[in-house]
Amino acid sequence: ALKFKVLVKNKKAGTIEESMLRMDDDHAGETEELSDSDFMSEDEDTDDTLPLHRSKSPTKRRGDRRSSPPPQKKSKVKKGKIALALSDLVVYTKSQKFVSFEHSLMNQKCYENNSIGEAQARKFVRYSAKEFISHTTRFITRIYPKGTRMSSSNYNPQEFWNVGCQMVALNFQTPGTQMELQDGKFLDNGGCGYVLKPEFLRDRNTTFTPQNVGGYSKPMSLSIRLISGHQLPPSSLSRTNKADPKVHIEIFGVPEDQARKKSSVVKSNALSPKWNETFSFNIQVPELAMIRFCVEDEVSVVNNEFLGQFTLPVMSLNTGYRNIPLLSKEGIKLESASLFAHIWYY
């Protein structure tokens, strides 16, 4: 029913019924005030955001310890305004402050979504994975980077995909392995933007957790024969402009499936390096696993330069002889550059 539709996720004034009654009236420019839990969401001051107030000096801080605690102030109610025209566009994805899994189970509606900071979400993955997965089978859940990431760095999105989080927000302006996983994840389904979770992350009675896959394991034995490379980009750090390429093959998924293997180094040949090396992986939960091919130039024993990569879901791999395109750090296809490999699994 929602195919080719755009969902607007935002805070909302009132109920859907009230929105429907307003549809026929002209509310251009009108706003409504939201307060307390309606307005508080991911922008509140938590341990995931920078502190708003800091002590002016160490002396002041020492003085605070000796003085008696100040009287408790009444907590101010947060208020903000929302345009009714925007509010009325919110139907299936209404932002709702996250309190606890128990509170959501008792009070949250199916069209209400939560945003949880990365630090709190990581604690849930570690200590309450079963409750977290139960929550994400019922409600769309968004994870967002903590405010202390001043350089716009990113966390690994895989750990939150493993528990069924549907919206794992990243700093898209920062290239790296995390964004490569993001782009690779959504290559599935033709890159249309929505990827269906595995059935065991949609079943409300599931007992799956990333740490204990149990009966949800469908082991895959994957074999990759890395044959050769073609027209790899030249190394900017090499004096002769010839790379000494090597290939890393990495698996991202549940903790048990994490693996990384690397090929030998081919000296001074970026045009047509040949490896003819075979790598084997045993993957317990292939539905959640991603595979990343990364080509580097071994400039020295301790220094490697990134040349290109390609990341895709393991379930999107086809068997047989395959040509693997390579992308730059920014995710742009490197014309003519590729790896040639034979893929086989059962």
Give descriptors for this structure.
single chain; 346 residues; alpha+beta; Immunoglobulin-like; four-stranded antiparallel sheet; hydrolase; lipid degradation; EC 3.1.4.11; PLipase_C_Pinositol-sp_Y
Question: Count of DSSP E strands?
Answer: 14
User: What is the string of SSEs from the N terminus onward?
Assistant: HEHEHEHEHHEHEHEEEEEEEE
For the biggest β-sheet, the strand order reads 3-4-5-6
What distance lies between the first and last C-alpha atoms, to the nearest angstrom? 36 Å
What is the rounded Rg?
A: 25 Å
Question: What does the main sheet amount to?
Answer: 4 strands, parallel
Helix segment tally: 8
InterPro entries: C2_dom, C2_domain_sf, PI-PLC_fam, PLC-like_Pdiesterase_TIM-brl, PLipase_C_Pinositol-sp_Y
Cofactor: Ca(2+)
Region (Disordered): 15-80
Keywords: Calcium, Hydrolase, Lipid degradation, Lipid metabolism
Task: Describe the structure concisely.
With 346 residues, this protein is an alpha+beta fold. The chain is built from eight helices and 14 strands.
Written account of the structure:
Helix content is 17%, strand content 28%. The protein has 346 residues and is α+β, with helices and mostly antiparallel strands. It folds into two domains: 8-15 and 81-215, Alpha-Beta Barrel (TIM Barrel); 217-345, Sandwich (Immunoglobulin-like).
